[in-house]
User: Which sequence fits this backbone?
């Protein structure tokens, strides 16, 4: 989202080094643990060291040391580099979309034997993000980002807009709002946020990747996703949705000054809004995303991460034990919510959230709505080269937005680039 | 009486424009650092805000004052690394300039080649090497690669061959001084201004280095400022980026550099003008 050029340069460097890099010798089973073990844990969640301290107090035999990292794609590249050097931490926070690339690089361990007991703690959609639709389990879900519609209640009233139930209503409202005031938009389309678009595609039922036996199937330009691309392409070319990049100061200002009336975003948005649009405090509310058909009720995920155990870890069993505790134990979940400001993936954790975020003090049922939305989020499998697909998205949709050309063509470009890259990297593709 | 030289309006205005262009971002950082979180994106770009002290105390309070830890680490990496690099470069440059030995031309050509390789490209291989030695995620991981700098050796060689007359070394030898003594008593003092240049160059390079420490270090207690501030900026999806802290941190991080340049300026000026008065 931010520091784009740096991302590209660093990813290129790190990946290049991996291609030329050495092989790592691993794969042997972990022997039974005796005596105290030390685990290192890379994470970017705030205050995780305090949570680990609680674990350390209760478990003298397994000591967890937290190394705070920066988030984002660079941290994934850093982890892969460390894994190749045989120097990876025992535990790694892995965003769902990065996990398959870790699996493909054989950098994370299958911890099925140690964590299969806690499968029931998570919804199927979320659990699928860490199994990738296979029999293995590559991590334990920590947080999730079900998508909802954030909107300005006061401005909706002012412009005479009711909360759209379907995307058709959303389009009509977008036209109506922009017709009343040319400087105001109902919402935006972001060509810079592939994760956002992926979430909306999930809602429509898109399946960008899937595993069939030992082969990958890529469906980025499937019917559902085409529908989403076509819809936003229409609105963008009409000029009734805002197409400026999210996360820029201008975008912050638009949110803050009430030039953007709504934002289709994930459950973590209150943090962003409270810091970037402080003037809107108490004026925003949430509703489920508009639906593709009035009879449906679906959502998708934007963001979220799991905790994976490195394949090179000498203490896999202990590490798996810790990650299971961290993400399912009631006390740990409570700490995750309070200290790390995480929206926990575990069902139990979601029920621990009762008091609405400060910014949403006007909406007392904030978490109730969020939990309902979360349960409607559709499952999804990410592929091993999400980074390639995501940068292709940014390139292709940037161009499509600039030149007001077809969004479905842009989607096809993303699809073809992704498939070509997978072929080149030697993945087996189902025809 | 000498006639006063007319002011060249064109060069002056060009230079002023250049200065404005360079200083504008600094002024922005300065004003932005005074803005509180709420003011940052809402007030005019160059209007000072009211949150400077709030930002400073927030930054100092962040993770129990880890920012000052980063500051100390950066000072250690940049100070220690630059000092070691200066010593190594000066000795190497002096040897290359003043001794005839087989392979001297080859070494020097290789060094020139080394200048052309950006250090960024070497960061990952260096990481793989140091990880094999078990030195990754230690202070040495950042210090060791900073010590060798082909460009500094090149500078030292150029400077040594220009600043130290062969006759002087010859005289020393006739008087019975050993080669180490010559280096210490004759060569180093004469290379002083050149060494200051090397020190400053290396210091700034290490102070600003990002990729090497980013790859090498895992524990944020060992991070330098660049990597530390980056963790504040890229905080993961569910956390807002701490823009106001990053900006305040960036402002604080340039103060030592400015102080260093102001104090070492006079040595440096000697150096830059040194060549022009050679007889």
Assistant:
């Amino acid at each position: 989202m931010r520091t784009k050029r740096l991302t590209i340069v660093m990813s290129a460097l790190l990946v290049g080094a991996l291609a030329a890099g050495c092989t790592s010798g691993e794969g042997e089973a972990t022997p039974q643990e005796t005596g105290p073990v030390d685990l290192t844990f890379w994470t970017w969640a705030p205050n995780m060291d305090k949570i680990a301290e609680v674990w350390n107090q209760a478990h003298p035999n397994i000591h967890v040391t937290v190394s705070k990292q920066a988030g984002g794609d660079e941290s994934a590249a850093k982890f892969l580099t460390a894994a190749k050097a045989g120097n990876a931490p025992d535990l790694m926070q892995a965003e769902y979309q990065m996990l398959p690339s870790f699996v493909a690089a054989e950098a994370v361990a299958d911890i099925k034997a140690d964590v299969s007991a806690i499968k029931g703690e998570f919804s199927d959609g979320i659990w699928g993000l860490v199994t990738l639709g296979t029999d293995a389990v590559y991590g334990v879900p920590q947080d999730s980002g079900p998508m909802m519609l954030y909107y300005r209640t006061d401005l909706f009233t002012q412009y005479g807009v009711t909360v759209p139930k379907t995307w058709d209503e959303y389009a009509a409202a977008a036209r109506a709002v922009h017709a009343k005031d040319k400087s105001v938009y109902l919402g935006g389309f972001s060509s810079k946020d592939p994760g956002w678009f992926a979430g909306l595609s999930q809602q429509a039922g898109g399946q960008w990747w899937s595993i069939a036996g030992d082969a990958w199937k890529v469906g980025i330009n499937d019917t559902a996703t085409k529908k989403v691309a076509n819809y936003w392409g229409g609105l963008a070319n009409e000029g009734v949705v805002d197409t400026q990049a999210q996360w820029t100061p201008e975008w912050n200002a638009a949110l803050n000054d009430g030039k953007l009336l709504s934002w289709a975003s994930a459950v973590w948005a209150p943090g962003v809004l409270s810091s970037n649009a402080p003037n809107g405090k108490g004026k925003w509310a949430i509703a489920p995303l508009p639906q593709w058909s009035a009879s449906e009720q679906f959502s998708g995920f934007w963001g979220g991460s799991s905790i994976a155990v490195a394949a090179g870890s000498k203490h896999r069993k202990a590490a798996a034990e810790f990650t299971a505790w961290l993400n399912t134990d009631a006390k740990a979940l409570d700490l995750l919510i309070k200290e790390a400001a995480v929206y926990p993936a575990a069902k139990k954790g979601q029920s621990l959230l009762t008091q609405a975020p400060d910014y949403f003090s006007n909406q007392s049922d904030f978490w109730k709505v969020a939990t309902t939305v979360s349960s409607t989020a559709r499952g999804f499998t990410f592929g091993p080269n999400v980074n390639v697909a995501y940068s292709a998205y940014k390139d292709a949709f940037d161009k499509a937005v600039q030149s007001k050309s077809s969004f479905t063509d842009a989607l096809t470009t993303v699809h073809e680039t992704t498939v070509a890259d997978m072929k080149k990297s030697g993945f087996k593709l189902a025809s | 009486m000498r006639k006063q030289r007319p002011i060249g309006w064109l060069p002056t205005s060009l230079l002023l424009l250049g200065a404005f262009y360079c200083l504008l971002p600094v002024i922005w950082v300065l004003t932005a650092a005074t803005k509180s979180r709420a003011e940052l994106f809402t007030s005019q770009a160059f209007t000072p805000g009211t949150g400077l002290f709030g930002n400073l105390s927030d930054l100092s309070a962040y993770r129990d004052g880890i920012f000052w830890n980063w500051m100390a680490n950066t000072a250690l990496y940049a100070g220690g690394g630059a000092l070691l690099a200066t010593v190594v470069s000066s000795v190497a440059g002096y040897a290359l300039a003043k001794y005839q030995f087989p392979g001297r031309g080859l070494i020097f050509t290789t060094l020139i080649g080394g200048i052309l390789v950006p250090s960024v490209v070497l960061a990952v291989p260096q990481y793989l090497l140091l990880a094999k030695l078990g030195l990754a995620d230690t202070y040495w991981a950042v210090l060791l690669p900073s010590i060798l700098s082909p460009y500094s050796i090149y500078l030292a060689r150029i400077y040594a061959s220009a600043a130290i007359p062969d006759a002087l070394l010859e005289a020393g030898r006739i008087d019975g001084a050993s080669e180490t003594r010559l280096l210490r008593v004759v060569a180093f003092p004469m290379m002083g201004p050149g060494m200051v240049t090397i020190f400053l160059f290396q210091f700034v390079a290490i102070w600003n280095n990002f990729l090497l420490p980013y790859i090498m270090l895992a524990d944020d207690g060992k991070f330098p400022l660049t990597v530390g501030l980056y963790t504040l900026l890229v905080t993961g999806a569910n956390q807002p980026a701490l823009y106001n802290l990053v900006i305040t941190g960036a402002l604080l991080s340039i103060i030592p550099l400015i102080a260093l340049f102001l104090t070492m300026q006079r040595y440096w000026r000697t150096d830059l003008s040194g060549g022009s008065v050679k007889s």
About this structure: The longest helix of chain A spans residues 386-403. Chain A has two domains: 34-144+302-366, 146-300+382-424. The two ends of chain A are 33 Å apart (CA to CA).
